[in-house]
Amino acid sequence: MKTLYLECNMGAAGDMLAAALLELHPDPEGFLRRVNALGLPGVRIAAAPCVKCGITGTHVSVTVNGREEESRDVDFAGHSHRHAHDHHHEHNHEHEHHHDHEHEHPGHDHGHHHGHHHHAGMGDIRHILSHLDLPQQVREDVLGVYQLIGEAESRAHGVPVEEIHFHEVGTLDAVADVTMVCLLLHELAPQQILCSPVHVGCGQVRCAHGILPVPAPATATILQGVPTYGGAVQGELCTPTGAALLKHFVTSFGPAPVMAVEQVGIGMGTKDFEAMNGLRAMLGQTREEPQDQVAELSCNLDDMTPEGIGFALEELLAAGALDAFTTPIGMKKSRPGVMLTVLCRLEDREKMASLLFRHTTTLGIRESLCRRYTLERTMERAETPWGPVGVKVSSGWGVTRRKAEYDDLARLAREQRLSLEEVTSALREK
Questions:
Q1: Rounded mean pLDDT, 144-171
Q2: Which string of DSSP letters, residue by residue, matches 179-247?
Q3: In what order do the strands lie in the sheet with 71-74?
Q4: Contact between residue 310 and residue 346 where contact means Cβ atoms under 8 Å apart
Q5: How far is CA 190 from each of CA 145, 177, 284, 318, rounded to the nearest angstrom?
Q6: How far apart are CA 331 and CA 337, in angstroms?
Q7: CB–CB of 241/169 below 8 Å?
Q8: DSSP string over 301-334
Q9: What is the pLDDT of residues 1-54, one digit of tens each?
Q10: What digits encode the pLDDT tens for the residues 304-331?
Q11: Angle at CA of residue 236, ends 143 and 181, nearest 5°
């Protein structure tokens, strides 16, 4: 399976993700030419080699009308540090992302401490995207990322999403970052995207509303449910943009999988730390793993009638068991018996155990956890001379199978006074 693994040991920001993915692209120069030709007014995107701790990666910079944004960081003593960033909400990022916010959105100039800084809302973002020549999926992904940010800011500030002004993230340089990442992922087309736990940094960050703890409120909200950690690096390592991009695209977070890596891309920030200030992206092949985990409950029975066991099986399946079956076994004192086995989802274990105790004579139930390999299943309809039948299509793992629903075939055979084989043959001929 074509897999992308993101290593966020120094956080994540829009430009760092864009730079790492750009290194994986088969034609990075051509990609930059196409992005610069999209039509973002005054925007110029450039990529250049960047060396950190002796390792060469790529740094992506975005200028608007030739200028780049500067902002301020705050250390524990309250001193401020000038740096540039890709950040969305006048929160500051340790990575000095050299983005300038020169684009004006009429009616949204709130006059914060950045003299040339302007804001935009969701309506402005939609308007900007409507003029870009992008695949529909990419356009939807960009809007999805902004929706995550808007909902987080809405929760942080207690105002509706449509009234949120995105500060830096609403300006053209940040739109360029988000669009680049979405378009790069669309063209690289990994089948799954995995990510390490995210380093968010520590300390404080200065934003439009004052000095806030790291991670900033919007970032913390977006990253709910995502494994994160702090550490000794003071500053904001994961921006709301970076957090939203990860949350939107990543399938799961955890250690690197067993993977045959084919390409490695490194996106660098600007500021220097003892650790390499970069995000690493690895593209390669992983084996298809079992899709999910199920519980297997079983019990041995030697004092029930066949009718009673059959009734128990019916009740278990009606209650949502994935499967239920019996196996003949030999029990103590040389008694023949039956082992009743139930497969169910993990969240249904207690319900199934309760039903086993209710409908069987068992005094105890064994439980095992199993990972299962499954094919994707969909239903189609096929026509026969006597009417339609359902066809179950199973696919994945390099195979595709089609099987007509027995109940439909049997119904037609009875209605038309035909054999089951005659109906099945007619379907095969179609």
A1: 70
A2: HHHHHHHHHH--SEEEEPPEE-EESEEEETTEEEESSPHHHHHHTTTS-EE--S-BEE-B-HHHHHHHH
A3: 80-83, 71-74, 204-207, 210-213
A4: no
A5: 18, 19, 9, 38
A6: 6
A7: yes
A8: ESS--HHHHHHHHHHHHHTT-SEEEEEEEE-GGG
A9: 899 999 999 999 999 999 999 999 999 999 999 999 998 878 899 999 999 988
A10: 999 999 999 999 999 999 999 999 999 9
A11: 30
In the numeric block, the tokens 């991009």 are attached to 245
d(CA 22, CA 14): 12
Nearest to 170 by CA among 207, 125, 210: 125
Q: Which structure tokens are listed for 189? A: 């087309």
Joined tokens for residue 130? 């409507």
Question: CA nearest 12: which of 209, 259, 202, 195?
Answer: 195
- Dmax over CA atoms of the chain, in Å, equals 90
Distance (Å, whole) CA 87 – CA 237: 10
Give residues with Cβ within 8 angstroms of 130, minimum separation 6.
Answer: none
| Res 187: pLDDT | 96
Q: Tell whether the torsion through CA atoms of 419, 422, 423 and 424 is positive or negative.
A: positive
Q: What type of residue sits at position 11? A: G
The pLDDT score that the predictor gives to residue 69 is 57
Give the pairing of strands 192-195 and 252-253. Answer: parallel
Selection from 9, 2, 341 nearest residue 191 by Cα: 2
**Most confident segment among 71-85, 114-128, 165-179, 340-354:** 340-354
The separation between CA 252 and the C-alpha centre of its own chain, rounded to angstroms, equals 6
**Whole-model pTM over 0.70:** no
Strands 198-199 and 43-52: unpaired
Q: How many angstroms separate the CA atoms of 426 and 207, rounded?
A: 71
Dihedral sign, CA of 85, 87, 89, 93?
A: negative
**Partner residues linked to 234 by β-bridges:** 202
Q: In angstroms, what CA-CA distances link 104 with 98, 110, 173?
A: 18, 11, 12
399-404 and 2-7 beta bridge pairing? unpaired
Among 22-31, 206-215, 394-403, 419-428, the minimum mean pLDDT is found in 206-215
Burial letters 369-399, b for 16+ CB under 10 A, else e: eeeeeeeeeeeeeeebeeeebebeeeeeeee
